[in-house]
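Predict the holo structure. Ligand: iron/sulfur cluster.
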Amino acid sequence: MADNERLVQKLLELKRAKKAVILVHNYQLGEVQDVADFVGDSLELSQKAAMTDAQVIVFCGVHFMAETAAIICPDKTVLLPDLHAGCPMANMITPQALREKKREHPGATVVCYVNTSAAVKAESDICCTSANAVKVVQNLGDVGEIIFVPDQYLGSWVSEQTGREMILWPGYCPTHARILAQDIQRRKSEHPGAQVLVHPECRPEAKAVADAVLSTGGMTRFVRESAADEFIIGTEIGIIYRVQKENPGKRFFAVSEQAVCPRMKLITLDMVVSSLETMTNIVKVPERIRLKARRAVDRMLEIR
Ligand code: SF4
């Protein structure tokens, strides 16, 4: 038996014995996506975490995602196979800095992208993901000032879509910031019939030349339902493994081969197996923070 087959066999046995579920983000390595019970974007993965009756969740993504699962499921054990898998954008805001901003804008409603620590979520009124951010802001009604953290590019796009002015935090995703409008134009000239799909974390100039601006979950649905057979993909390139596997007759081109999130590539199949075998690394959120963060996450999950 080849090494990978042996690992997959071992993982299946461990999953049965420990009643575990493996949740995997769309940007993860192909070998990790292949052993997932579910592959999805942040919103889909939080919804799966909320619904699962497994006792252990092995979360293959970055730290804030595992924390979100721990916020929603305090009675389950949440494992992150590599604790170094953090999101640089999430580190661009601290709870102290957010408290300071709230003091400058008393009474403002804080909408917090899920790409943040639990402590920042605890300082926020409601969370959102790139899949539901527009809906979340539309749903707020007439609340006065809105502070949107930490992604300025997602925030400016939501502002544009909803017509709501918002106070934007100057954070950004270094990986999506590398996806440039001129690279999209070049790919378009190489593949004139292709549909261009771009993530809302990209710069406004990149979004302006796209056919659709979508979360990764939105991209997978768009590709499945589209009559087109070629797509130019403007997000972290890990998604291409998934859409290619699900749509073998269609062709996918990355806007930029540089659009790689190094932290999303840390977890390997080997690590998933050893994480479950040794029950490391357990991600926990202190109860005081968890309860406050949960309110913001629940308010988001209630929006359909
Ligand atoms: S792709 Fe960007 S937002 Fe996603 S985990 Fe990596 S740095 Fe964070």
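Residues 62, 87-89, 115, 173-176, 236, 261, 263-264 surround iron/sulfur cluster (CB under 6 Å). The first helix runs from residue 3 to 18.
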